[in-house]
Amino acid sequence: MAVKHTPGERIAELCKTYSISREVLAERSGLDVELIRRIEEEGHIPDLAPLLKIARALGVRLGTLLDDHQELGPIITRAGEAEETVRFVTGLPEAGPSGGKALGHQGLNFKALAVDKGGRHMEPFIVDIEPEAVQEKSTHEGEEFIHVLSGKLSLEYGKASSVLEAGDSVYYDSIVPHRLLSADKQPVRILAVIYTPV
Fold first, then answer.
1. In 60-182, at which residue ranges do the beta strands (DSSP E only) sit?
2. To pair with 82 at 20 to 30 A between CA atoms, which of 117, 128, 185, 191?
3. Residue 33 half-sphere exposure, CB side, CA atoms within 13 Å?
4. Are 38 and 50 in contact (CB under 8 A)?
């Protein structure tokens, strides 16, 4: 079943429900008011860290920003159905020629796999990393498990850098600054499972 709300729309809905202004949310989350506005109104998400900080500031799980329905039993996502569930893109705008107007985002396309599962503690995604992805390093509470499905993945973790190929996997603490990029300017697809403490 397709989810009706983007993460930004869900944040705006929760803020309205809790009578929390953008300014208060910015103060609680440690984020800039303008970034919150862009997430709510434009769907701009530079990386997962802001969503996690907003979820924490609102006292909800990351999944709450992705959910429309909640199911207590097992959730099965059939092949091809991930394209129809929650989908969002992270990344920084790519600068135009000579530093001119931004050409749009080159980033990570997240397709959530378990949006209907109520009370979940893990967030599984299929992530497509664009060849020219422009990402900042991210840092947030929790842990991540990555399994490379296709392509060559460059993982920058703290000061270290590793290349993972199809079939390789990695498990790491998300509090260490990290980012995922294409290692050879070709598309990369990964399975990512993110755990954040409630």
1. 87-90, 93-94, 104-105, 108-112, 122-129, 143-150, 152-157, 160-165, 169-173, 178-182
2. 185
3. 6
4. no
